Amino acid sequence: MSFNPSPGEQIIFQGHPSWRALLAFYLKGLLVGVIVGLIAYLFVDSWFRTFLIILIVLGLTIVVGFVKRMATTYTITNRRLNIKRGIFARDIQETRLERVQNVNFSQTVFQRALQVGDVDFDTASSDSENQFVFNGVADPQGVVTKVDQATQEGSAGSHGLGEPSGNS
């Protein structure tokens, strides 16, 4: 997962979006495969080739979904929150715990049935363009609890959340 904590920093939670969060993506891939397969059947008039096309599209969908899932890592430490996306190119989003003002989670009916959800962090600098969200995590309530735990650990013996007191 290659997250390098600073000295004294402890990882409290690290994970990826749940595979269940990608089921809708997989179902769309299956639907596209069926549609492309049926269109191909009109031209090639072979059920075997049609079935093969559907399998290829479904296989590509599964591989793309797996790579997309594994290329996203969520990390909570006793000092900060981190979202890392990408394999070749990197997009890293990070905020310090003391900047987190509210932590909320939401679940659509579909997400609730799959036991996944989105955890939204309101930070001191949040704007509509730069949202800090752990999308599609299993047990979103548990992730909220881990953030509470990190906040409590980070504030113990310090003058601010996650900020060790200096020698003044």
Q: Provide the residue-averaged pLDDT.
A: 84
Radius of gyration: 21 Å
Kindly report the spatial arrangement of strands forming the biggest sheet. 1-2-3-4
Order of helices and strands: EHHEEEEHEEHEE
Provide the structure class.
alpha+beta
What percent of the residues sit in helical stretches (DSSP H or I)?
Answer: 40-55%
The count of DSSP E runs of length 2 or more, i.e. the number of strands, is 9
Number of helices: 4
Given as residue ranges, the uncertain stretches (5+ residues, pLDDT < 50) are 157-168
Main beta sheet strand tally, sense and closure? 4 strands, antiparallel
Report how far apart the termini are: 37 Å
Strand proportion: 25-35%
* Global geometry: elongated
Give the arrangement of secondary structure elements.
Blueprint: E1 11-15, H1 23-44, H2 47-70, E2 72-77, E3 80-85, E4 91-96, E5 100-106, H3 109-114, E6 116-123, E7 132-138, H4 140-155, E8 158-160, E9 163-164
Antiparallel strand pairs: 1-2, 2-3, 3-4, 5-6, 6-7, 8-9
Helix pairs in contact: 1-2
Short synopsis of the structure:
This protein is an alpha+beta fold.
